[in-house]
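Subject: sequence -> structure tokens, single chain

Hey, anyone have a minute? Need the predicted structure for the following. Not urgent.
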Amino acid sequence: MDYWADNGYLVLGLDYFEGDSKALLNLDDGTFDYSAWIRAHQARAAVLLPPWIKTVRERYGTDKKYVCVGYCFGAPYVMEHIKMDWIVAGAFAHPAFLNEDHFKGIKRPLLMSCAEVDHTFPLESRRRAEDMLVEQKATYYIQVFGSVKHGFALRGDPSIPAEKWAKEESARAILEWFNHFSAGS
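Reply:
Had a minute. Here:
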């Protein structure tokens, strides 16, 4: 978030997890039900997001240029909002929990920043998404980073050159995407 703020954007973010970050979980605990944890947070996000967005638009104005970006868990919410006219452009990196319905009826430009190796958005899903975007004549851009895996844009290891470059290039491309579509609209 600091990257976009350092480049002139007012950055607002909803804590979908309400402080219950995945980073705090003991995923090695054999009794932990990760699927239930995800479902619970998806249900909460569905409740939290609409009033949060309403408040943001009321506070900052409906005449502003809004862009949205989501990483992993946040990708479906980007897809939901680029179907609305008030968003200028959207982007996601290493998405999770997407299905074909998310790619139907998008109205705004979409940048997809993807990992070559991604269990949550594998090659077949990425190619199907592209086919759907082509069919709709959508405005989109897909970048695929080889030698990285899911999580690269947030947790890329800066000591590994390919991961460091992919993380930085993903952020730069998203920034330029937003700049491009925010400038003239």
